[in-house]
Amino acid sequence: MLTYETWDAPSIDFNEDDETKGALSVLRWAYDHYGDDVVYACSFGVEGMILLHLIDQVKPDAKVVFLDTDLHFKETYELIERVEERFPRLQIVLQKPELTLEEQAAEHGAELWKSNPNACCNIRKIVPLEKALAQGKAWISGLRREQSPTRQNVQFLNHDHRFHSIKVCPLIHWTWKEVWRYVYKHDLPYNPLHDIGYPSIGCEVCTRPSEGGSSDRSGRWSGTGKTECGLHQ
């Protein structure tokens, strides 16, 4: 079995006629190799709807983790309920931080996301994901190369030094138009915030409509110079 310690990435190719641009093949490979030791960390953005649809075809009882910061939009929580109805066998776990918002404020000051967004992301996202991945060998992410300059070199399979794991990224070759074409074709549920200028959706307190108006991440931590929460660094 391919592990973090015995990293030797296999080559995964796909036919140009493949609607999923290799995503389905990559997911089959991941679950064949790791089985229940694969965790899908889903943000429930539109890319996540595609991955949930594909994972349901490969391993309908797969474990899906949502990093519940207690700061998400109500539309995101409502979407999770719709996804649970659409894919009832998926094991969706809402992973909570160790600190409640009140405890975080008492320890680090009110509205930490304003004074120190990196620290807030560490407490409410990175540490919870570390806990979720502690017993696994690989995790799945919806990263696409088109999303930002920091993601242009992402591969299907990546040696994740941050979490000492194998990071599987099935959607690296997908464009924004292809994402939406697939969602409409298969009538998948999605967050209605996407329809009003939010291509990338995170915590409500740190997310604004995109300045670019397409698939960019300019609405995340707007005005701070921050573009990633730290999960993919």
Notable characteristics:
Rossmann fold; alpha/beta; cytoplasm; six-stranded mixed β-sheet; Adenosine 5'-phosphosulfate reductase; oxidoreductase; about 230 residues; 7 helices; PAPS/APS_Rdtase; metal-binding
Task: Tell me what you see in this structure.
- The chain is an alpha/beta fold and 233 residues long.
- The protein has a single domain, classed as Rossmann fold, CATH 3.40.50.
- It is built from seven helices and six strands, in the order H-E-H-E-H-E-H-H-H-E-E-E-H.
- Strand 5 (157-160) and strand 6 form a beta hairpin.
- Helix 1 packs across helix 2 and helix 2 (46-58) packs across helix 7 (176-185).
- [4Fe-4S] cluster binds at residues 120-121, 203, 206.
Query: Percent range for helical residues?
Result: 25-40%
What is the N-to-C succession of helices and strands?
Answer: HEHEHEHHHEEEH
Structural class: alpha/beta
How many domains, as an integer? Answer: 1
How many helices? The count is 7
Strand order of the largest sheet: 3-2-1-4-6-5
Largest sheet: 6 strands, mixed
Count of extended strands: 6
CATH first level: Alpha Beta
TL;DR of this structure?
By secondary structure, the chain is of the alpha/beta class. 33% of the residues lie in helices and 11% in strands. The longest helix is centred in the middle third of the chain and has 17 residues, at 117-133.
